[in-house]
Amino acid sequence: xxxxxxxxxxxxxxxxxxxxxxxxxxxxxxxxxxxxDGKDIENPIVKKGKQITVHLVNYNNYIYxxxxxxxxxxxSPVLVxxxxxxxxxxFTEMLSVYGQNNAAQAQLLNTSxxxxxxxxxxxxxxxxxxxxxxxxxTEFNNKIESLNNQAESINEIxxxxxKRKKLKTFIDVENQDIQNVKMNPNIDPLSxxxxxxxxxxxxxxxxxxxxxxxxxxxxxNEQLQEIDQLQNNLKINxxxxxxxxxxxxxxxxxxxKIDQSNYNIIQSISNLxxxxxxxxxxxxxxxYGLNNQGTRDYYQQLLNMYMNYLxxxxxxxxxxxxxxxxxxxxxxxxxxxxxxxxxxxxSSLSGRNAKNKSAQFVARTYGDLYFxxxxxxxxxxxxxxxxxxxxxxxIITSQDLDxxxxxxxxxxxxxxxxxxxxxPCLSIGAGIPISSQEQTSGLNYFVGAGLxxxxxAKIQLGGGFMFTKIDVLSNGFKVGDPINLxxxxxxxxxxxxxxxxxxxxxxxx
Length: 509
Fold this sequence. Notes:
Number of helices: 12
Oligomer: single chain
Structural class: alpha+beta
Radius of gyration: 48 Å
Mean pLDDT: 76
Strand content: 25-35%
């Protein structure tokens, strides 16, 4: 029973929350849409007393500040504006540093250049041998293998240097380029956020949770300060590599003198001799651009970059505004104005070129008591046909009057405003006969029900009971009784009688 009560309360709570209206304004695309009960709706409508939440999405809060003007009305206001036209374009601009970085990186040794030669030379003893005991082929193969290992070691060092230089380049350009991206009104903020997060992930090698995984900022700072030392070590390794190539070429020339009979060996040696100049030149190129940059402290810049990353990561580029629906109509004016800081910051030229934006909409409410007055025409009918009395040959005689007669009527209508175009109501009021006959005397009083048509209940169709006074015989007389009036008059009195009415009236509010 306890669990059933919890489930029931949860369902009731969900239904109450679902009655709230959510309005979404995509700032970048200048588009509005409305959601209620988890479904898109065409017109914004909400139960009176419930909350209206306006969600700014795709909202670049680095460029704009938001201002909401909310006015509540009894009657439907006239919109004086609408959505501003958007000058936004597709997401076409990003950091230029990605394209510039690769050109500054040191080249890797083209180890595929050796591949076929190493393979043939290292297996040459299986296919033949060098004549003469003056040359040790096994030692030669070891030199070939060592040369290959040197090339791989050099490439690993180059990869480390390039990675650290890339981070250094990011640090040098980060403030300007990141600021330009953040302040660009032509970039979709959500796409910009995804790009920048990817950018910082690449810089800091962050884990899945966006945190520094294996290194802290001080360790990264130390790695950047080691770039010059790594480049010096790389130069030494390249020099050793070049000397190893020259030693290998000496052995190659000796092999040619000793044995000319093994075709595979001779062919591979000839190829290697032809590649000697290329290998040495490639190794020389590696030393180009390995200029020492000097040692400086990057810690503060790294810390600033990481703070910028956390800011971007936690920025949803959204803003919510809530208001309680208290009147029948709520007018929202959403104004987005460029931040004042843009005019003071010379690096935010793209942001200064952004245009102010605005949007407006009217939400309508339902669910409150409606009180209104209406004026119109009605037709009434008595349950008992009224009569006109006269005396004929000293006998009281009567004549039936019309059972139906028209009236001007005025009603007070009371209703509970459902979310519908037709609303039932209760009505009370009065009517004045406009007939040439005198069925009634004075006002006619109405109590009935009706239907209000239209969002503003402009038309009311109703009917119900009618009460009014009519002439009846008094002093115990009845039709057919003899009477001697002389100079007197027929004894009559006013008494209430009942009937019913049907009418059509128009709202005066």
